[in-house]
Amino acid sequence: MSLHGNKPNKVLLVIALCLAVTAIIFVELWLSEKQRKQREVTKEILKEVEKIKVTTNQVTVNVPVDRPVEVVKEVEVVKTVVVPAQLTPKEVWYISTGSNFLSASLVSHQDDTLRGANSVLVAVDLGLVAKEFISENRIKDKVELIFRRNGLPVSTEGINSIILGFSINAMWIEEVSNQKSRLAYHMNLVASRNSVFETSTGFIRRYLDVWRDGSYGTVGRQKAAEGWLGIVEEQAEAFANAFLKANR
């Protein structure tokens, strides 16, 4: 009896155990499936995040930039016109002299020093012995006549003119019967020009000898005047030719 009476209880126990095992297995399967879905969701989320990152890196964002606006301003231009002042004669002379000084060339012949002259002033200086035979005015008139005949401009003022000076000096060297009869003489012809020099304190000027001719010898009392006039004429002709050649 006791054996048969306990048989149903064993069957129930076996069934209960089977149900418990099945429940456990079911719970494990359910948990496993839940975890798998969570992992898949996490993977999907990660994929979406990566996709968003990639998309963000590829997007060009246009950010508006404030640019300065160029404003054209009207500027009033005032032009100052400088009217040159009238130069004084002294300023003109200094400018001309400085320019000529810088461009001056070195001459090799005395005839070239007569270049650019506009007139000639004749001056005569005789020694005491020479004046006993001829006058200064006679020589001056003779020279000026020769110059005018050759077309040389004769001046009565020394400004900007060549000063042509004739000088005759003589002395007695021989006596016959207590009478002076023969002379030794020296004739000199010198042309001078107004020259300008530059110094550390400014410009200075003076007349310098630029052309020269001369003669010396002896002559008798009776022929002194005519002999000297002949020499003066030769020297005047030589100067006139040199002057015209330099200024033609």
Give a description of the structure.
- This protein has a domain at 117-246: Double Stranded RNA Binding Domain (2-Layer Sandwich).
- It is 44% helix and 25% strand.
- The protein has 4 helices and 4 strands, in the order ααβαβββα.
CATH topology of the domain at 117-246: Double Stranded RNA Binding Domain
Oligomer: single chain
How many strands in all? 4
* Mean model confidence by pLDDT: 80
Q: For the terminal residues, how far apart are their CA atoms?
A: 181 Å
With strands numbered from the N-terminus, the spatial order across the biggest sheet is: 1-2-3-4
Write the layout of secondary structure elements.
Elements: H1 2-58, H2 89-102, E1 120-126, H3 136-150, E2 162-176, E3 179-199, E4 202-220, H4 224-246
Parallel strand pairs: 1-2
Antiparallel strand pairs: 2-3, 3-4
Kindly list the characteristics that best describe this protein.
single chain, 248 residues, alpha+beta, Double Stranded RNA Binding Domain, four-stranded mixed sheet, 4 strands, 25% strand, rod-shaped
What can be said about this structure in brief?
With 248 residues, the chain is an alpha+beta fold. The protein is built from 4 helices and 4 strands.
